[in-house]
Amino acid sequence: MVHSPKTDYEVIVIGAGVAGIYQIKRLIDMGIKATVLEASGDLGGTWYNNRYPGARFDSESYTYGYSFSKEVLDEWHWRERFSSQPENLRYLNFVADKFSLRDHMQFNCKVEAAHFVENSNIWQLRVNDGRTLTCRFVIMAIGLLSQSTLPKLDGMDDFKGASFHTYYWPHDGIDLTGKKVGIIGTGATAIQIIPVIAEEVEELYVFQRRPNWSAPLNNSEISEAEMTDIRTRYDDIFEACNQSPGGFVHRPDRRSFYEVSREERLALWDKLYDEPGFGIWLSNFREIFMDEKANAEFSDYIADRIRQRVKDPDTADKLIPKDHGFGVQRVPLETNYFEAYNKENVHLVDIQEDPLQRVTESGLRTAAHDYDLDVIIYSTGFDAMSGAFDHIDIRGVGGDKLKDKWFEAPATFLGMMIHGYPNLLMPNGPQSGSASTNYPRGIECGVNWLMDLLAYMRDHDYIRAEPTKMAEQEWTAEVVEMYKIMLMRKAKSWFTGYNSNVEGHEAGHIRHLVYNGGAPKYMARLRTVAASGYGGIEFEGEPADPQEKPLQSTA
Ligand code: NAP
């Protein structure tokens, strides 16, 4: 028998983003005493923080929203096919307010440490306000891309102008009119920012280390009539997402790349290039992801498109990636990105040719030039997936630090649980299905599975759940195996755990962060595990005190 003391909460959720919001809704509905601790000043996660100009979905808006409430689906009108950050934050607030979820959230509460107490099977959380809170289960809804990373450049504190990472874009905005601005990085974030601010600034210097493949977003407004139609099709839309590998409405072309003529391939690509969203990536031939020759032919096609859109041939050439093919990392979708380089005030600085040396009081210094700047924007990405975990002192059985366990690469069971860390649950952890798919679809699936697990534990009076070492090894091996057939294994991107600014995450060593089997396969696996009575997970029994139910009811 295991001693089961009272805890402050039965469940503590860390993070009030897209995952945390849905997670707390389900916990409340189940009558579980739970709270959300959120480090930021309000809810919204990625959509609360990333307030840079141009920030918007790359998923179709109506596939990004929650599917759980018919009322929400009926009442919310997505105004654009790919909705922008302010609207997305309004949406999350609308959902939270509708179900009074804010009452169960605590803001400005950064969890600094989470320690498992073995003799009582509880978690102790240390919060930055000095409190220590206890709970039976801790649910990590801390985001995939929430740990921003800055370059390690000398003189960063010397700069006299404004400088910030895109994740911390000033909440009150910043007027860039007439300013000289430098932006470091050309990932998905910078590709959204550059064409918007190019219209305002006096001069824009883009410091590019490696170019990124990207293709048009082809955004548009959604009229009342179209939204009415979408509402009648929601069931089909979500079902289509569940059936597609990426969790999007886009499905791969069923034909083989080699079965069709070059003309037919070009016809498909011309069509996809003009269509909205990820079709150009996900409705393409499957070989694009796995076959070097097919990928090279398609990459050449996109390179030609870039040359057609950028007037200066040298600039066009610099914007075409040479070290990886199209789609082997998450594809940024753009609106007038390439046209921005046709503007006289936009300058591409190739820092492979002319390396960045330091930040000065007045700007940025490369080997060959000093750039005088009023503002420096660091669009330098994130320590993806495991980074947010590494910044909490998480200790499991035997006091073992999760950061140490995951130093080489994460190991998990289904991306949701970790051996040695009982009752620590992750609706969208490393190696889960959500990372490589349309996030909210993966998140809903993860939360639902965890709630079924908690219900199962309640029914059986279990108070402790931990995956076996073998189950974790098998799942991790499966995740690793899938990388072998994907060209993405060769890319320097967060899909392979690469981040040049984080020790141990530099190129040359793959960290297998992402499950690449696709949504249908992942969901089928989750169902199988649940149906087997959660094979691979060891449970421990009921509390000593028969009065105390393992999951306390708030009712
Ligand atoms: P990112 O794709 O990792 O790009 C970071 C950029 O910064 C890269 O160009 C990188 O160059 C550069 N960089 C990093 N450190 C540098 C250094 N020390 N010196 C010079 N350059 C440096 O990050 P991100 O653009 O923030 O995007 C991350 C992810 O967020 C995306 O993959 C996507 O999943 C998500 N996202 C989604 C949307 C959306 O539409 N929903 C929008 C934005 C972002 P190298 O490539 O040479 O390392």
TrEMBL record:
Alphabetic keyword roster: FAD, Flavoprotein, Monooxygenase, NADP, Oxidoreductase
Molecular function (Gene Ontology), one example: NADP binding
Cited Pfam families: FMO-like (PF00743)
Keyword Transmembrane helix attributed: no
SUPFAM superfamilies, sorted: FAD/NAD(P)-binding domain (SSF51905)
Listed PANTHER family: DUAL-FUNCTIONAL MONOOXYGENASE_METHYLTRANSFERASE PSOF (PTHR43098:SF5), L-ORNITHINE N(5)-MONOOXYGENASE-RELATED (PTHR43098)
Protein known as: SidA/IucD/PvdA family monooxygenase
Protein source organism: Sneathiella litorea
